[in-house]
Design a protein that fits this description.
The chain is an alpha+beta fold. It has two domains: 3-233, Rossmann fold; 239-339, Nucleic acid-binding proteins (OB fold (Dihydrolipoamide Acetyltransferase, E2P), Beta Barrel), CATH 2.40.50.140. 26% of the residues lie in helices and 37% in strands. It is built from nine helices and 19 strands. It has helices at 41-49, 71-74, 91-100, 110-123, 139-152, 169-186, 197-203, 221-226, 231-236; strands at 3-12, 15-25, 30-34, 56-61, 64-65, 76-79, 157-161, 190-194, 206-211, 214-219, 241-248, 251-254, 257-260, 266-272, 277-294, 297-304, 307-314, 327-332, 336-339. The strands form four sheets. It has a six-stranded mixed β-sheet, with helices on both faces. A five-stranded antiparallel β-sheet has the order 13-12-11-14-19. A four-stranded antiparallel β-sheet has the order 2-1-4-5, with helices on one face. Helix 3 (91-100) crosses helix 4, helix 3 runs parallel beside helix 5 and helix 4 (110-123) crosses helix 5 (139-152). The longest helix has 18 residues, at 169-186. It binds adenosine-5'-triphosphate. Pfam families: ABC_tran, TOBE_2. GO terms for molecular function: ATP binding. It comes from Brevundimonas pondensis. Keywords: ATP-binding, Nucleotide-binding, Sulfate transport, Translocase, Transport.
Amino acid sequence: MTLDIQSITRAYDGLPALDDVSLTVRDGEFLALLGPSGSGKTTLLRIMAGLDRPSAGQVRFNGEDFLALSPRERRVGMVFQSYALFRHMTVADNIAFGLKVRPRGSRPGRAEIAERVRDLLRLIQLENFGGRYPSQLSGGQRQRVALARALAIEPRLLLLDEPFGALDARVRRDLRRWLRQVHEQTGVTTVLVTHDQEEALELADRVAILRQGRIEQVDTPQALYDRPASAFVHDFLGEGLQLQATVARGEVVSNDWRAPSDAPTGDALLCIRPEDLEAADHGLVGVVMSSLRRGDRARVAVSLHGRRLELDRAVNDPLSALAPGDPVRLYPRRFHVLAKSA
Ligand SMILES: Nc1ncnc2c1ncn2[C@@H]1O[C@H](COP(=O)(O)OP(=O)(O)OP(=O)(O)O)[C@@H](O)[C@H]1O
């Protein structure tokens, strides 16, 4: 059950929302489409669902031409940010809806539908809520029902567009963990659109980073974080420092710091994560801007070659003892070198 997207382009009024995008979603995989607003995530998801058509390119599912099929024939389940439940139907009827509207030949019997609904209510941990109406549920509960409704038809592909976007941060975090568990239980190939990097990194097996209608990189969360393919990806996935550098004779040199590197010779960008910097007697020269203790942690803001960086440290870390105005030298324990063209 592999979804293969080949060289998709979609233009609106001559402006490309998607520009030559190719992507493979593997069988049983949880893949996130992550990118800033307007980067083309929803457009790509809608093309997968059959709600929109590309101007050029192919979409194949297990080798079958997906573009020749209607949304219903594709058998995809969808969940959107807005709950989109039927207000006049109970939770159980909402979940059963996709099965009840099937043509007679493929429609399961009443008892079978009731059993499926019971199983799904158990899966979404709302066993006793089948008789309620959507207005009697919290936002998080409604989204769980929306997911059960999408799963009821036993979709070949589950497409989620910012499903937790309208919920508060705490509920989002809980639902995120829960959704990952549901994915592990059902094994349905899933594509999630989000602009929340934490959500993508925590939930997905692989993440595709979109920017201005193009895919910048597709990789596991760890690889994206540690080995970004471009300055954009490094910057987009959390706090980081990017410094001009040069690679020559097996060494990367930036400002007052150098280290062995097997990166290609030439101008480069040195990418560093704040957690990889440690106080040392040599390394990059900076100055402490502020320091705030909270319990056994300290947040130390450092200015380093014109960039402000927040460092989260244990109170017994040497950095935590510094005061605003103190000079500091920071040594990158780990770093990533990008060729200048990236
Ligand atoms: N129906 C439309 N008509 C014209 N332009 C559109 C239409 N739908 C999307 N676009 C444009 O295509 C580009 C990509 O939009 P899309 O909704 O796919 O982005 P997105 O990454 O999902 O953004 P967001 O995170 O804000 O939802 C944007 O520049 C948008 O303005």
